Amino acid sequence: MIAISEFVKSKIHYIIGAVILFALAFRQYYKTSKGRLVVDAVMLKLPVFGILLRKVAVAKFTRTMGTMLGSGVAILDALDIVAKTSGNKVVENAIYSVRTGIAEGRTMADPLQASGVFPAMVCQMIAVGESTGALDAMLEKIADFYDEEVDQAVENLTAMIEPMMIVFLGVVIGGLIVAMYLPIFKMAGAVGG
Questions:
Q1: Residue 193 pLDDT > 80, yes or no?
Q2: How many other C-beta atoms lie within 10 A of the C-beta of residue 143?
């Protein structure tokens, strides 16, 4: 513990500088088109948060798309607007591929399925909505379902964080206690022996 403390005290300027440089470099990389695509793809693949981000993206896409189609906006214009407001480059590219597919005369569900970003259930429900002519109503139903899924996922995540924090704090405090008292016990053993 003393060695760690001495190291941090002597190298704090370098540590702070390295953190600042890393943050600036990451920010510059994220501003590039390729960097944003890579970071957003990684974000969607994270174990817990990736699933949550994917559900948020699906809810946002279906809610906005359903509202715009219900208001009479042309489907290509609606897809263009939804893509720009997606907030994730991977989702944006998937929506643009849907837009391109529709411009070529294909259905909306096929490019969504091919993108791999949207769950199969969503693609099937959109296909049903397209075939029945009630795409806006189907998109609203999907959005309602995924809004509930997001709320449930956030609840589960907050419920999971609490025990993890308790375990983390227990390990840190236990480590500090062991690091502080172990030398005292060793000295007492050496003196007594």
A1: no
A2: 20
Q: Where are the domains of the chain?
A: 47-154
pLDDT at 1: 64
Contact residues for 149 (Cβ-Cβ < 8 A; gap 6+): 55, 59
Specify the CATH superfamily of domain 47-154: Type II secretion system (T2SS), domain F (1.20.81.30)
Task: Give me the residue label for tokens 């509930």.
Answer: 148
| Distance of alpha carbon 85 from alpha carbon 62, whole angstroms | 12
Contact predicate 120/142, CB 8 Å: no
3-state secondary structure of 48: coil
Average pLDDT over residues 131-153: 91
**Helical axes 33-45 vs 2-31, angle rounded to 10°:** 120
Q: How far is residue 150's CA from residue 144's CA, in Å, rounded to a whole number? A: 10
Name the residue among 76, 67, 59 with its Cα closest to residue 122: 59
Mean pLDDT of the chain: 88
pLDDT in tens, 73-118: 898 999 999 998 888 899 999 999 999 988 888 888 888 888 888 8
